[in-house]
Amino acid sequence: MSTELHTLTLAGMQSAMQAGEVSSRELVDHSLQRIEAVNPEINAFLQVDTDGARQAADAADAVRSAGHAGPLTGLPMAHKDIFCTEGLKTTCGSRMLENFVAPYNATVVDRLNQAGMVMVGKANMDEFAMGSSNENSYFGAVGNPWNPEFVPGGSSGGSAAAVAARLVPAATATDTGGSIRQPAAFCGITGIKPTYGRVSRYGMIAFASSLDQGGVVAATAEDCALMLTAMSGFDERDSTSADVAVPDFSAGLNESIKGLRIGLPAQYFGNGLDAAVGDAVHAAVKELEALGAIVSEVELPNQHLCIPAYYVVAPAEASSNLSRFDGVRFGHRCDNPADLEDLYKRSRGEGFGAEVVRRIMIGTYTLSTGYYDAYYKKAQQIRRLISDDFDKAFESVDVVLGPTTPTTAFKRGAKTDDPVAMYLNDLYTVSANLSGLPGLSMPCGLVDGLPVGVQLVGRAFDEARILSVAHQFQQVTDWHQKMPASV
Amino acid sequence: MALTTDEVRSIAHLARIGLDEARLSELATDLSTVLELVEQMNSVDTTGVEPMAHPGSSGLRLRADAVTEENRREALQAPAPSAEDGYFLVPRVIE
Amino acid sequence: MSWEVVIGLEIHAQLATQSKIFSGASTAFGAEPNTQACAVDLGLPGVLPVMNAAAVEMAVKFALATDAEIGRTSVFARKNYFYPDLPKGYQISQMALPIVGEGKVAVMQSDGTEKVVGLTRAHLEEDAGKSVHDQFSDATGIDLNRAGTPLLEIVSEPDMRSSAEAVAYARQIHSLVRYIDICDGNMQEGSFRCDANVSIRQKGDTELGTRTEIKNVNSFRFLERAIEFEIERQIDVVEGGGTVVQETRLYDADKDETRSMRSKEEANDYRYFPDPDLPPLIVEESFIDSVRQGMPELPQARRTRFVESLGLPAADAAALTVDRQTADFFEATLDESFKPRLAANWMTGELFARMNKEDVSLDAVPVTAEQVKGMLIRMQDGTISAKTGKQVFDELWNGAASADAVIADKGLKQISDTGAIEAMVDEVLAANPGQVEEYRGGKDKLMSFFVGQVMRASKGKANPAQLNDLLKKKLEG
Ligand SMILES: [Mg+2]
Ligand SMILES: [Zn+2]
């Protein structure tokens, strides 16, 4: 094979291995070389497991020679550093877990291992998945491969940048308010956040438990489908895991979208949306119409309350989820604590970065006596309204479509001093988390050399549909094939 | 709702996060801005709306009562900042 | 001034499950530190709770036993606070919607009257770990083996009016949870712990006074003394012109006093909210039905049955239903050849006296119900007398295999052969002509002298009833 191995998609690598044109070991070595060459510039990887990856690749090649290869055997990938990996550091982008080695694997890690995928390393991320720019990592910001002066989005910025720079063909990611879809949009790749409960949260370090969902970023919808099939499914170790059958997401990709009803919420195309981004999204809608989709308007009347409700629910859950990081059983402990209170306060004060502190503080406040009803309960009621709005919309359409983000990627440092401006990045994505619905972002244009993403939201457990819509779109467009010049 | 530095100090205490005065006053500004954002919720009347704590509608799944975990103290205690004789250690607590 | 005391109790009963409430780690007591604390119990990053079905079943059993409402939808909530023995920084408990709602329990008081105490609620929650202060010179050790042990927190209405009533109520709950097999009741091991809310008010007042909460009392004796002390203290405070402060207090058994734990109090704000890791717990009618099928007969019903169908006096019935083990033991000694009353007398008399003397509980008694039954059968059929029975029981206590074996080994078989007894009577009367004369002259008391003589001659084996008859006949006839 040529030196262009890394430009292959996951599916392309799979065919090449099946055809005997390349081995897993070659793919993995190539990935390791690219990481070594490119990562210093974009900082997408926090850790590379060279030895482990090579061993796993050799083992995968042996499995293939023995005739037992599955659809993912030997394919290289990266895990977002939020997924616990036994024997390898899991930092969650935080000083708090700088040296934390989990004594267990996340269910997602186990499943992809069993499927034969080869993890080459752990991807950078916003600390504890809190952020939309990947500037909140204790281990340094991530550069957008399209232009390293710009952010890759977050919190799965490392995963998205690694795929966009073609260091790995795919990576796991997580999405609490848009953390898969927004970086996918900013980096010009495809990312899917499945239905809440589709992918086990066991071993995935919690940010906001009722919103967090693991998923995947890759170049194409076809690649996402491949990996999501292996990652998904019931897990008895997660009480919120859904006991719902998992279809082979790859199998349904070629279904025609003729007659598919697409809803455009007026609220997704109003104030705050960059005009050029809006144009790119409308152009994508035209392509889908040409493929036979029927487009209509739908109403999401409470859309403007998504961000306010989200910034109550997510910090509240986070404030409690992050209490376990207390310097007692694992994680950062301050030097020479004078007493217990000193131990707690300095360990946590030193271990958590500014944005994490901000969110713990908001959550602590909104749950405290006298404020619960005004903030937390109110937010949960609005969450219900938002969820009901989607139920209503899905009575008349099959998919809700809009921009993934209001703008393309912004410059590093542009929003670090204004938390609220940063939060508005998630304007179109948080509703899917609040209502638990599957959402996908795929590339649909370039504005000033930076990618634009279009978002598809489906009914609960209808990932197959949004994946097939995206795949059909990618059969007739080439936005997903565009790569940063450096690649 | 604008928060005072004193209020922020007491929230920080509840959350057991040690912050110096400069950060407390910085946070008073930041948190007030965020609260202003979230208070947009008040523009809608939610009387009678059932709060939603979880997406999905399924009830809690129950596990059979069986001991499935064995002693893994050594591995589980390996990440501990301070442990001795099988105990996790913290500064002496006076009760 | 005349004061009325108002007491409510919160009891933490450790549920007798094999594994923890949210993990598969063992709940067995006494293991090496942290050997029964798995990743979930330690609250390591990324791990998640999964609910134990047996704990739900036990809570429903308790609801059925106390005629309580069952929360068809109950919600687990997080109670947030920092403490080193609380690994996650929050305790998973139930707040707004508990699994057990309002119920009631009839409490038998020391004077034999019954008082109905209202139950406010009972909820499921996880226990915390243990802090060890004496093992390390300048550090506290944390053992999380107990973390995640399932608890049922049983909250009473403030219905008790004295320490004695409070203790009677606590004993009743203690007996009940063991009766329905949801808690081993071991107070030394902390399986059953009481918190008492105590306040005073002037007689006739309807408003409650300010209460204090005495935490974690682990014996009934201490409970009584702690409440007594607290009542006295509050009266002293108020009569001295002060006011009672709402606070948590700790009972110090060595000093026999309660003292403030204000240090632990400091502005707790638990920030309860529904646990997002655990969807609502839905209890279906069919689940309740299946639990109902497995319910044992409750103490109250059993007591009534002992009186009405077994013909026991009320006091015996009460004593024999004090706990399930005693009642089960009693019923296992019954045989159709004798009246239940014979067994009841034996248990409430001999057995309880012996247990008292040796200071052992029923599970440490070395005699089985089967052995007692064998002995009672021999008493009923006249093989041995009641007096010999005591000797047989003694031998059984000391390891003998059965009453029949003792009777055979020691030759204790009662002489019920009229001819043999008559011969002995004749002999005794012949040897004591003077006493016979005196008896016939009206000195009735000498009867016991003759009985004693014949018994001695028979080595205690003469059937006493036959002996009496024969003596009377010979002396008076
Ligand atoms: Mg409690
Ligand atoms: Zn290459």
Sum this structure up briefly:
With 95 residues, chain B is α+β, with helices and mostly antiparallel strands.
How is this structure best described in words?
The complex is a heterotrimer of chains A (487), B (95) and C (477). With 487 residues, chain A is of the alpha/beta class. Chain A has two domains: 2-259 and 404-481, Alpha-Beta Complex (Amidase signature (AS) enzymes); 304-380, no CATH class. Chain A has 15 helices and eleven strands. In chain A, helix 8 (275-290) links the parallel strand 7 and strand 8. Chain A is globular, with a radius of gyration of 21 Å. By secondary structure, chain B is an alpha+beta fold. Chain B contains three helices and three strands, in the order ααβαββ. In chain B, strands 2-3 form a two-stranded antiparallel sheet. In chain B, a hairpin with a 2-residue loop joins strand 2 (83-84) and strand 3 (87-91). In chain B, helix 1 (5-14) crosses helix 2. The longest helix of chain C has 20 residues, at 220-239. The A-C interface holds A 83-84, 90, 92, 97, 100, 102-104, 106, 201-206, 208-210, 236-240, 316-317, 319-320, 322-326, 328-330, 340, 344, 364, 367-369, 372, 376 and C 39, 42-51, 78, 80, 82, 84, 87-90, 142, 269, 271-273, 276-279. The structure holds magnesium ion and zinc ion. Zinc ion is lined by residues 3-6, 30, 34 of chain A.
Output the number of helix runs of chain C.
Answer: 17
Overall helicity of chain C: 40-55%
Shape assignment of chain B: flat
Total number of strands of chain B: 3
User: Could you tell me the radius of gyration of chain C in angstroms?
Assistant: 30 Å
Describe the sheet with the most strands of chain C.
8 strands, mixed
**Structural class label of chain C:** alpha+beta
> Could you tell me the radius of gyration of chain B in angstroms?
22 Å
Oligomer category: heterotrimer
Share in β-strands of chain C: 15-25%
What structural class is derived from the secondary structure elements of chain B? alpha+beta
